[in-house]
Request: fold
Amino acid sequence: MDFGSLLRGRRVALALVVVSAAVLAWVVWGGSDEDKILARIKELARAVETRPDETNVLARTARINGVFKEALEPNVTFSAPELPSQMGSRPLALLAGQAPQSFGDVTLSVGATDIHVDHAVAHAVSQVTLTGSQGGELRREQRNVRFELARHGGDWRVAAIEVEARSEAQPEARP
Reply:
């Protein structure tokens, strides 16, 4: 290996480091409020999903609680027609940790989302699809979920989550 190719290799490595740092800076500090809010909502959906390596409710709840501490206001409120209302990130993490008992393997997808930002407060309505598989039976349900968020610095945290009732137009699907 000659000195010229070694120097080119170092330049390429340095360029990759600079580009990576720029992308990381954009992700952390860049992007619109709408992008950050949608990313926060999707982060919460991923946190609630089941993972194959989770063998017990305690480990699952601990993982979810870690995400919720960062993403939710301490006194977040949660309401859904079929579930008991909750207040606080820890009780909500406990509820989410027990979801596999009712739904089996859970995946959540966040669809169309309408976001309105007014200074340090935002409201979002997302179409969220919950897919559960328990005992070989697949269940899919789509609901609108309303989120209220508050900005702290450049970070958006969820202050309220409200799951709308199932409508007759969107019955539970069992493929």
User: Anything to note?
Assistant: The first strand starts at residue 72 and ends at 80. The helical segments are 3-29, 33-48, 57-71, 89-97, 99-103. The CA atoms of residues 127 and 144 lie 5 Å apart.
